TrEMBL record:
Keywords: Glycoprotein, Signal
PANTHER family to which the protein is assigned, alphabetical: RECEPTOR PROTEIN-TYROSINE KINASE, SPORULATION-SPECIFIC PROTEIN-RELATED
Main location: other
Gene3D superfamilies: Ribonuclease Inhibitor
InterPro entries cross-referenced by the UniProt entry: CWI-Assembly_Regulator (IPR051648), LRR_dom_sf (IPR032675)
Subcellular location: Cell envelope
Name of protein: Receptor L-domain domain-containing protein
Top-level taxon in the UniProt lineage: Eukaryota
Amino acid sequence: MDLSRSDFTTITLGSTVSVGGDIKFRISDTLTSIDLGSLQELGGVMDVSELQNLEAFDMGQLTVLEQDLEVNSPKLTSVDLGALTRVNGSITLYRSLFSMFTTQQLERVDRDVRIWRCDSLLSIDLSGLQTLGGDLSLQYLPRREAVILGNLATLPHNVKVHSAALKRVDFGQLTRVEGDISFSIVTKLTTLDLQRIEYLTTVDFNHLRTVGGRVDLSSLSRLEELRMGKLAALSRGLSVANAQLTHMDFGELTHVSGNVDLSNNRLTTIERGRLEVITGNLDVRGNPLSSFDSDVWNTIVQGQVFM
């Protein structure tokens, strides 16, 4: 069902319960209202793109979307996922004006969630989402202050987050990351990547226990507090250089494969917690440490200790 380039002002699907293929509402200056009626299942793509005067979009009774949801309309101030519980493809929200996005009843997305260039977006709450099969990409969102991962337990692929206004990152119930965590200007779960974050002062790993890649927080120049939570192992090192940390407690972390770089902070104390081994180097240069037992740290660090 392709309703692209139509002159309609309103489209209503009425009593239609199921559509086997795509529904495309694309490229219109006149369309201001879309009512999906009784639609519950869609076998293809839902495409709501380049509708210049659409201000609200409600998924209504639709519960299962077999392919992708694409929303790109410049005056859109409200996106309501309604009864949607599962998307077997990706969700892409692009260049719209809504201020909050919440997954509501949505529990599963088999591929990616991409939210890009939504200039008015302040908060992204993924609390309802339990399974994400692909990337989480939240980029070029200049006002976004909070990201809540909620009930997600595992992130198997990339997470890319770019927001100058970001103040809060809540890992929620996340227990496993398959790849890197990188807070850096250069995009690198294979990657959690929060880029160009000017105001982030606290990072709490909460329930996260393992990271298969590198944790790089070296671009967070205002970071004052790093809470390791239940993190037990890092597979490719940790970098928190050039920040504002005054205290470092490794907590339940027992094993770091790779280097640990804590240089050029404001650290006065470093507590080893349960840390047993760092296979690479430990760099604590440029910190006003009041106490540091090099003999103890030399038994933990298999490489060199720089101080």
